Amino acid sequence: MSAADMAQTIQPLALNVRLSCQLLDVPESSYYERINRHPSKTQLRRQYLSLKISQLFNANRGIYGAPKIHHLLLKQGEKVGLKLVQTEPTKKNKVWSTDITYIPTQQGWAYLSTIMDRYTKKVIACDLGKRMTVELVQRTLNKAIKSQDYPEAVILHSDQGSQYTSLEYEELLKYYGMTHSFSRRGYPYHNASLESWHGHLKREWVYQFKYKNFEEAYQSIFWYIEAFYNSKRIHQSLGYLTPNQFEKVSA
């Protein structure tokens, strides 16, 4: 990642500039050069399309993936390629997405932290907590790293929630040699694959039950992930294979 790209990554964060530059190993001069530079026509065009993509994503309740969003853009007269709408990795353990979603129980909310491989669409780690804490997302990351036999140079994509921007989490990522990529504020489409998975999880499974307590929700959701989603649920984007099948054939 170039210094300019790094500067663009840290610009939206509500962090001390010097600390942010140190975390990403980028000179402060490169950061200020980037943010003070006038945007080019190409950059303005990309910003405009990012806004359009976000609007279409939100208007369709976060269900549509890149192909459908691309189709809607073309119908609106926008000349844009599918690759610009969403660029995906070409190997496993190159880009992961992570997020937290709310799970209702009769004793209150539980919080599901998930990490998904963007290439295989496999849920490689998850953890359920009674509170939405830094420790919850740290546990999930540790599970993911161990389950994938300590891969190198992984990019982890998340939103800018306080758990993910915490110094403790950044230090753990640095320890594992990972790069942190953030969704821009107000642009949930940048993490669309995991947003879509949360929607499937709730519509296909969670909303069929009224969990009495945390333990019941924990057992039910982990069964869905391991016994159904990863091993039996086919994906059009994977050539109608399951995540486990696609992982094997693409190895």
UniProtKB/TrEMBL annotation:
Record domain Integrase catalytic: where: 85-251
Family annotation (PROSITE patterns): INTEGRASE (PS50994)
A Gene Ontology biological process term: DNA integration
GO molecular function: nucleic acid binding
SUPFAM superfamilies attached to this UniProt entry: Ribonuclease H-like
Name of protein: Transposase
Pfam families on file: HTH_21, rve, rve_2
Reported function: Involved in the transposition of the insertion sequence.
Phylogenetic lineage: Bacteria, Bacillati, Bacillota, Bacilli, Lactobacillales
